[in-house]
């Protein structure tokens, strides 16, 4: 599985893909919240999880406690980077 680096730009592209190319209501920043700032519904959040899994080569869906904590762009980027690092043989920064 490919491990593309996760960046705000890469996440923005996935969100635009999820929204069929529609522009996002706000510029993405680390503190941008998926529900409160971007207005994503629960099905859209699930779609974003699957797109992230495909794009970044990680498994998020099997980690419900992690998913429950991912409310912002920055939290999501950090979590995916930790998972990628752990999959590459390193130890996760979050334990």
Overview of this structure, please?
The protein has 95 residues and is an all-alpha fold. The protein has one domain (8-87): Orthogonal Bundle (Non-ribosomal Peptide Synthetase Peptidyl Carrier Protein, Chain A). 49% of the residues lie in helices and 0% in strands. The protein has four helices and no strands. The longest helix is centred in the middle third of the chain and has 15 residues, at 42-56. It is globular.
What is the strand and helix layout of this fold?
Layout: H1 8-18, H2 42-56, H3 64-69, H4 73-87
Helix pairs in contact: 1-2
Q: Specify the biggest β-sheet.
A: none
Highest CATH level, the class: Mainly Alpha
Q: Helical region count?
A: 4
Proportion of β residues? under 5%
Helix content: 40-55%
- Model regions low in confidence, pLDDT < 50 over at least 5 residues: none
Mean of the pLDDT scores? 89
CATH superfamily: ACP-like
What count of structural domains? 1
CATH topology: Non-ribosomal Peptide Synthetase Peptidyl Carrier Protein, Chain A
Number of strands: 0
Rg calc: 13 Å
From the 3D coordinates, which CATH architecture would you assign?
Orthogonal Bundle
Category from helices, strands and their pairing:
mainly alpha
Shape: globular
Distance between the termini: 23 Å
Could you spell the SSE succession in H and E letters? Answer: HHHH
State the main characteristics.
95 residues; mainly alpha; Non-ribosomal Peptide Synthetase Peptidyl Carrier Protein, Chain A
């Amino acid at each position: 599985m490919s491990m593309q680096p996760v960046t705000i730009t890469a996440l923005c592209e996935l969100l635009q893909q999820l929204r069929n190319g529609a522009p996002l209501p706000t510029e993405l920043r680390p503190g941008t919240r998926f529900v409160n700032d971007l207005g994503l519904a629960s099905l859209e959040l699930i779609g974003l999880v699957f797109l992230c899994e495909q794009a970044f080569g990680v498994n998020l869906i099997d980690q419900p406690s992690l998913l429950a904590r991912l409310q912002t762009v920055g939290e999501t980027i950090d979590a995916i980077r930790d998972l990628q690092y752990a999959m590459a043989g390193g130890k996760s920064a979050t334990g």
